[in-house]
Amino acid sequence: MNQSASKANTASSNRIPPRNFEALRDHIAASQESLPKRLAQAARHALAHPDDIALGTAASIADAADVQPSTLVRLARHLGYDGFTDFQSVFRERLKNRASSYEERLQNIQKGITGDSYEGALLSGFLSAARQSIDSLSEAINPAEFARCVSVLADAEIIYIVARRRAYPLAALMSYSFGKLGIRNITIDSANGVDDEIVQMATQKDAAIACSFAPYAPATVEHAQALARAGVPLVGITDTALSPLSACATHWLEVSEHDFAGFRSLSASMALTMALPVAVAERRRLGT
User: Fold this and answer.
1) What is the CATH number of the domain that holds 25?
2) In sequence order, which residues have a C-beta less than 8 Å from that of residue 65 and are 6 or more positions away?
């Protein structure tokens, strides 16, 4: 082993690894520049398919990620874990916590409230998470990148919107706003199961917006990747540089939402997706 590799391994072994999924995701995003190609590939797969990492074997996960099992071990050690099993435990803990019922979450909230008003404390917690989310977006948003996203969408003949699960309200809001502003748009969410055919109708003269956050809705990722392969300009709204959406988007905007007792806010994402349609309409009105 050469001296630089030895130093890298020593540094990794001395690092205290993240013990929850959110911290691990942020850690990987911060270290993406230093990750070798295969390790970055494995890391992207892990963040895009956290349930599979929690439940799979090293061999099955490596096969799905198109890497060798040894790559998973090297990734784990690079991030400071003892090995793949130690790395996998973070994903298993996330799955365990996610499996808790809404009733259990509410019970946990109640245990943490010492004042007289349960309802007031509950509202205060959600409002605080919303404020923190919006403040984080205000500090992190890149106005120039936002303007580039607006430009791509303003030039489109039709704007396709893709969002599922927790991100679906963003699609509903944007579709409503674009419609009210007279901007042609199609939400890829058919009741009769022809979403793939709708995706195939998009052309390079159109544009698309895809929204998804960890653990990333598979249908959203698949449709976003299909649109990108077809050469359709794609604007991604997601939570990290290692998101599968940021990997295939023409331009992307990062939104990191805070949570209260496990209930994650959508406040910053809603603010962003309210601004986008209005900015697109104004760009078209001004013709710039």
Assistant:
1) 1.10.10.10
2) 41, 42, 45, 46, 71, 72
Kind and range of the H or E run holding 39:
helix 37-48
In one-letter notation, the amino acid at residue 79 is L
113 part of a folded domain: no
Amino acid, single-letter form, for residue 107? Q
* Residue 92: strand, helix, or coil: helix
User: Order of strands, edge to edge, in the sheet holding 185-187?
Assistant: 185-187, 159-163, 207-211, 234-238, 251-254
Per-residue pLDDT of the chain (288 residues; tens, 9 = 90+): 444 444 444 445 456 889 888 788 888 877 777 889 899 889 988 887 788 898 889 999 999 889 999 999 999 999 999 999 999 999 888 877 765 555 666 666 666 565 556 778 888 888 988 999 999 898 888 899 999 999 999 999 999 999 999 999 999 999 999 999 999 999 999 888 899 999 999 999 999 999 998 878 889 999 999 999 999 999 999 987 778 898 899 999 989 888 887 788 899 999 999 999 999 999 999 886
CATH number at residue 255: 3.40.50.10490
Is residue 203 one of the residues assigned to a domain? yes
Residue 136 shares a structural domain with residue 262: yes
DSSP state of 56: S
Dihedral (Cα; 245, 246, 247, 248), 10-degree rounding? 60
